[in-house]
Design goal:
This protein has helices spanning 19-27, 56-70, 91-96, 107-115, 130-143, 160-168, 224-238, 256-269, 280-283, 290-304, and strands at 5-12, 34-39, 42-47, 82-85, 121-124, 149-156, 189-190, 192-199, 205-214, 247-249, 275-276, 332-339, 343-351. The protein is an alpha/beta fold. The protein has two domains: 5-199, Peroxisomal Thiolase, Chain A, domain 1 (3-Layer(aba) Sandwich); 205-351, Thiolase/Chalcone synthase (Peroxisomal Thiolase, Chain A, domain 1), CATH 3.40.47. α5 (130-143) packs across α10 (290-304) and α7 (224-238) crosses α8 (256-269). The two termini are 23 Å apart.
């Protein structure tokens, strides 16, 4: 089996148009969400990318091209697989034209055309776990020698259907995102485009392993036994023990019940808990792009030692405090995303610079 590395990354989010801007914004305390109005005064907090282009498709094309270029993937051969991970795909573009008959099946091919990508194209849409499942799929192809590089592009951009749907289910906070917070009251959504360029050529970050566990007992939430199974399977796939993990980036979306379930399951696997970090208070929950976006942001934070600020009271009952600064050394890191439909997905990274 070939080892798989993170050769490059790019990110556009509410923190800025690229990772350098994101590090500056985080170092200054982050940004506050704006408001997204669905219709008739119904609006919720929302982490938007600062780009005023009114045409959804033109805006998406420009951002995707810029982020893919930042990852370095466009500088070499564009012949490997392209994995597009998204929950909403081109829904925002359909809204622009008042068309609501489902996503254009050619949209992934259109994205590949924007990038001049000539390899096979795969659309991964497993709700919030889409990004991490795309990483695991790309890793599998590289490990087995079917390709020597792949591009994962997480894409989740503004649309009223998504925000209105989450609002209608009463899952959104009216104020702000408070992962593992005492006063947490729901999610705050956001948009992001993230690019992860994976390769068989050595670089600082190795994709050590991962796992995807599906348990639909709670279609709109996480299942404790599935979170436990996800962690244990990801550790086994990486050849690691729980004590080898120095940092965990959990889902930690700010859900009252979801955060409690996740914290309880993590404590069952890891005793004591390693350092924890949440990124959703910085960029929001970016749904199908979250796995790719949060991996890009997490690795950049660890390299720069710029850390998301925790400026709210955490819930002591969870016994899962978020770290207020980066660990001095974090050779092995686990990142997880939990999603609708019973998806529980984790990826383990190894920092070869530690």
């Amino acid at each position: 089996m070939n080892p798989v590395y993170l050769a490059g990354r790019g990110l556009a989010s509410a923190l800025g148009p690229d990772l350098a801007s994101a590090m500056v914004a985080l170092g200054q305390g982050g940004v506050q969400p704006g408001r997204f109005e669905v219709a008739g005064g119904w609006a919720w907090p929302y982490y938007a990318i600062a780009d005023d282009e009114p045409d959804w498709m033109a805006r998406t094309r420009r951002i995707a091209q810029r982020v893919a270029a930042e990852s370095g993937a466009l500088a070499g051969p564009r012949t490997g697989p392209l994995f597009l991970s998204s929950s909403s795909l081109d829904m925002g573009g359909l809204e622009d034209h008042s068309i609501f008959d489902g996503s254009d099946p050619n949209f992934p091919e259109a994205v590949a055309g924007w990038l001049g990508w000539r390899g096979p194209v795969f659309a991964i849409s497993t709700a919030c776990t889409s990004g991490l499942n795309a990483v695991l799929s790309a890793r599998s192809l590289i490990r087995q020698g079917h390709t020597d590089h792949a591009l994962v592009l997480g894409l989740e951009l503004r649309n009223r259907v998504t925000v209105g749907g989450f609002g209608g289910m009463q899952l959104l906070s009216a104020t702000r995102s408070l992962p593992f917070g005492q006063a947490r009251a729901g999610l705050v959504l956001g948009e992001a485009v993230a690019a992860l360029h994976l390769s068989s050529q050595p670089s600082r970050w190795r994709i050590a392993g991962g796992a995807n566990v599906v348990d639909g007992q709670d279609p709109a939430g996480s299942v404790p036994s599935a979170v436990v199974a996800m962690c244990r399977q990801a550790l086994a796939d990486s050849g690691l023990a729980p004590q080898d993990i120095a940092l965990i980036k959990p889902q930690a979306a700010g859900s009252l019940n979801g955060d409690a379930v996740e914290a309880q399951a993590l404590r069952e696997v890891f005793a004591p808990l390693p350092a924890l970090v949440s990124l959703k208070a910085a960029i929001g929950h970016t749904l199908g792009a979250a796995g790719a976006a949060e991996l890009a942001l997490l690795t950049a934070c660890l390299e720069s030692k710029v850390w998301p600020r925790v400026d709210y009271v955490q819930d002591a009952a969870l016994h899962a405090p978020l770290a207020e600064q980066a660990p001095r050394q974090a050779r092995h890191v686990m990142a997880s995303i939990l999603g609708f439909g019973g998806g529980h997905t984790a990826v383990v990274l190894e920092d070869l610079a530690v």
